[in-house]
Amino acid sequence: MKCRFCQTPLEHEFIDLGNAPPSNAFLTEEQLNMPETFFPLKLFVCHKCFLVQIDEYKASEEIFDNDYVYFSSFSSTWLAHARNYADMITKRLGLNADSHVVEVASNDGYLLQYFVEKQIPCLGVEPTEGTAAAAREKGVPVLCEFFGESLARDLKDQGKQADLLLGNNVLAHVPDINDFVEGLRIALKDSGTITMEFPHLMQLVAQNQFDTIYHEHFSYLSFYTVREIFKAHGLVLYDVEELPTHGGSLRIYAGHEGAGHSISENVEKLLAREEAEGMRTLKYYTRLPKAAENIKLDLLEFLVQAKKQGKKVAAYGAAAKGNTLLNFCGVKSDLIAFAADASPYKQGKFLPASHIPVAAPSFIREEKPDYLIVLPWNLAAEIMEQEKGIQAWGGRFVLPIPQVKVV
């Protein structure tokens, strides 16, 4: 196997989480007695460019099919983040009715709806028909296709290049990162700006966020590596912001080389911090397996003790990261009674491999669990405020990452 970016042979393992089904492959009741397909969940790091990447990967067409159940608009925190971004970037770039905004992986229109409100022409590119249909209901025009060099050339030929070309949490999801970034270059106007948000690998390692590893994520990215990838395609990163979203993310700003963008001091500062952390040495990429094993043992010990004491444990959030955690730990429905989730697209289904049933949040009040494990820990504040009523019967929250903690 070779590095997806630089084609260097991959020899160095980052972490091996065993075999697991795709994290968003939810099951119907009829499917519970049918075989499930498992894929390796092993990551390697390239010793040349330090791109962390999955070993064997499930075809993207299988992952992002019409049964894909992740809809962005069910998190109020994420919607607020999207609105704030739209306000900020409109002002920063001076976007108006003569501009064109293109979002790659636009999901259910969670973000572009705010450009529609501002009467700024926009276009979403989204491979899943269910989420694309939801976006169209918000007045967002959508192309239901995968983004890459071929589609970018079509957009350019149609005069639909972007003044602002953006993508949130998509850069890590593309199997061919060179084709994707070359597509960004082609689809961007000469004076345009690209912004991309993605989880920062430095935070994944520092905060033991191994549960953010799943088949839909092909790459795990440092700022240094992303800069190298974009540079190879004639794009310069001229600014970067650190964000609290998804446990610690980066928002990069990129444009064509030679377009006159002034380079922010944030760029060199973050590169220096990553280097000081050792992110350009292979030793840095050996830390995570031990931390993951410790969390596994601690979570299993907590669940077994709760079972022995006759306590009822439930989870909140049928999130992909939660499925990685539960499957790595070998947790089944005998230890966690159910998972509550606000998305009606997940309710009534079962988590892959663990077969834990997914219910509406109202089920928490009916069942009154003693403990509620917050699986999407990046939304812990929102969820704990929303479900603070569990305190009425003595219920407590459990946060599994970066260490198992009862609060």
From TrEMBL:
One of its GO terms (molecular function) is methyltransferase activity. GO terms for biological process: methylation. It holds the Pfam family Methyltransf_14. Residues 3-64 form the Methyltransferase putative zinc binding domain. The keyword Heme does not apply. It comes from the Bacteria. The keyword Nucleus does not apply. SUPFAM superfamilies: S-adenosyl-L-methionine-dependent methyltransferases (SSF53335). Residues 244-402 form the C-methyltransferase domain. Keywords: Methyltransferase, Transferase. This is Methyltransferase domain-containing protein. It comes from Desulfatibacillum alkenivorans DSM 16219.
